[in-house]
Amino acid sequence: MSKILIHNATILAVDNAHGTTPFAGDLLIEDGLIAAIGTNLVPPDGARIINGRDRLVMPGLVNAHTHSSETFFRGRYEGMPLEIWLLYAYPLLMNDPIGKRLLYLRSLLLAMESLRNGVTTLCDDFFDPPAHDLDRLGTVFRAYEDVGIRANVSSAAMNIHTLDALPFARTVMAAELQSLLDFGPPMTAEAYVDFCKSAFDSLHGRAGRVNFMIAPSAPQRCTPELMAACMELAIEKHVPFHTHVLETRTQAITGHALYGKSLIAYMRDLGLLRRNTTIAHSVWVSDEDILLMGQAGVSVAHNAVSNQKLGAGIAPLRRLLDAGVTLGLGTDGVSSNDTARIFDVMRIAGLIHSVSGPEYDKWVTADEVLRMATIGGAKTAMLEHITGSLEIGKAADLMILNLRSYPFLPFNDAAKHLVYAENGSSIETVMVAGQVVVENGRLTTVDETAVFAELAELVPAWLEEHAELERRNSVFAPAMAEIHRRAALAELPLHRYQGDLPFHGTPVRRG
To answer: Where in this chain does the entry annotate a coiled-coil region (predicted)?
Structure first.
C-alpha cells in the first residue's frame, strides 16, 4: 500500500491527549494505518507528500444511524409524524422488492454523498422486506466495498405484527382493513439467527471495513425470544445490537400499554441493556430510563434533524451525557432528513439543545457535539479501536479541510467552526483506511456523472410504481392519525420526563 505524509498541517486528533484542541504537525500513513504523528517527520522512500499548510486534518465523521432504503425518497414527504410517514416510506402493503441494480445504486448513492461530506463510516440499518436474502444483502455490501466507505450493515428484523406493536391499533382500525394485513407466519428467532450466521460467514469483514451488525427493529416489534437470540449473537460476534427505542410519544405510550412499564425498563428486564446495545433516538426516555441506560453503558445514536422533521421531540442529551451514556450522531434515513450530511446534524444538535432551559452552563457544547460526530459515533458502532480519532495504529479514516474558506475565516475555535459554520464545502480530501476516496472535492472510486445519469434514467419509473403503492397504503392513514391523536392525549407519568426537556413539560391531558 502507498505511503502518505501530510506535512505541516493543523491536526485535530479528538484523542485523549489533545481532545478537540488542534495542534501543528505531520501525519504519516502506512499500509492504511496512522504510523506516526509529530513534527518534522521524515517521509519514507516513495511516500506521497500532501502539503498541509492552511489545512485542517481531522477524523472522518461517523453516521451512527441511517437507512439506505430511504435514499430515493429525498424531498418527498413532510408534515407527517412517524406513524403516518411509515405508511409511505415503509408501506404495509408492498410491491416486489426493488430490483438489484437499483438496490446497488441506492446504496452507492448514499455512500457517495456521505464520503463527499466527510462521513467515512456509516451504520446502515438496512431493511429489505418481505424476506431476508443473503444475495440482496451482499449487493449492499458490494456497493459500500466499491465506493470505499467503512460501514456496519444490518438486515433489520421484526416478527410481531405491526398492529400488535402499536397502542389502540386493533381498536381504531376497521376489521376490513386489518384483514388486508395478513403477513403470514412470523419469522422465528432460529430462522433469523441462522440468516445472521450466514451473513457473518460470507459477508462480514469484506474489504476489511464492511461489517454485519445485528438489528432487531424495536423491542415492541420483536418477540423476547428473537431479541434474546440477537443479543447473544451480537455479544459473541462483538458487534452492535442496533435498535430503535422511544422515538415518539406514541412509543412512550406503547411500553406502558403493552408491558406496564417503559420500553427501556422492559429491555432491562429482558437483559437487553448491554455495552453492545445501540439505541436510535431515545427521545421519550424518563429519568429512570436514563439511569438504567447509563448503568448499563449503552449507546445512543442522536438523530437531531430527523426527530424534528417527524415531530418526534428533542432527546435529553445533557441528562444522557451526565448519566454516562455514549452519544453518536445519525442522519437517520434520507427521507426523514433529506441529506446524508452529518455536518447538518452537528449544527442542529449544537443549537436545538439550547432551548433546554435557562441553565446555560448545561447547554450542549460544540466540543461535545464534535466528539459525538467522531469518537462517540465510533463507540456506538463498536469501532472505536479502529476509527473515530487520529491515533497511531488506528485506520487512516480522515478528511482534510481548507482553512482558507468562508466557514473558517477568520479562524477562532476549530470545534465551533466545524459545528456551527462548516457544511462540508471546505472538504478537499477524504481517506478511508489510507485510500484517497475524495480528492479535490471529487470521488476517486466511482464516476459520479455516470452514476447520476443512470439514476436519472432508472429511478423515475420506480418512483411511479411507488406512488401507486402510496395510494394503496393511504387507506390506513386515518387509523394511524387516530393512534397518533390518542397517544397525544394519553396520560404518562410525566414527572419522570421533566428536567432539561421542556418539550415534554406541557402535556395535553384527557378531560
So the answer is: none
DSSP 332-355: --TTTTS---HHHHHHHHHHHGGG
What is the DSSP code string of 192-231?
HHHHHHHHHHHTTTBTTTEEE-B-B--TTTS-HHHHHHHH
CB 155 within 8 A of CB 126: yes
Q: Is 77 within 8 Å of 89 (Cβ atoms)?
A: yes
For the chain, domains (ranges, CATH) are 3-59+392-443 (2.30.40.10), 61-380 (3.20.20.140)
Secondary structure element (H or E) that encloses residue 460, with its range: helix 448-473
In this structure, are residues 390 and 15 in contact, taking their beta carbons and an 8 Å threshold? yes
Task: List CB contacts of 42: < 8 A, sequence separation 6 or more.
Answer: none
Task: Indicate the Cα dihedral angle 33, 36, 40, 42, nearest 10°.
Answer: -60
Strands 48-51 and 3-11, how do they pair?
parallel
Check: CB of residue 29 under 8 Å from CB of residue 4.
yes
Say if CB 124 and CB 160 are below 8 A apart. no
Give the phi and the psi of residue 317 in degrees, each rounded to 5.
-60, -45
Provide the β-strand partners of residue 244. 280
Place of cell 412517524: 82
Those residues whose C-beta lies under 8 Å from the C-beta of residue 22, and which sit 6 or more positions away, are 10, 11, 12, 56, 414
Q: How far apart are CA 217 and CA 98, in angstroms?
A: 20
The grid coordinates listed for 50 are 500532501
Each residue's pLDDT tens digit, 294-347: 999 999 999 999 999 999 999 999 999 999 999 999 999 999 999 999 999 999
First to last CA, the chain: 69
Residue type, 68: S
pTM score, whole prediction:
0.96
d(C-alpha 206, C-alpha 142), whole Å: 8
Residue 429 to residue 441: CA distance in whole angstroms: 7
**pLDDT tens digits for range 132-179:** 999 999 999 999 999 999 999 999 999 999 999 999 999 999 999 999
Helices and strands in the chain: count of H runs, count of E runs: 18, 17
d(CA 66, CA 152): 10
| Residue 422 backbone zone (phi > 0: left; psi -120 to 50: alpha; other: beta) | beta
Task: For residue 502, give the DSSP letter.
Answer: G
Rounded to an integer, what distance in angstroms lies between the CA atom of residue 210 and that of residue 207?
6
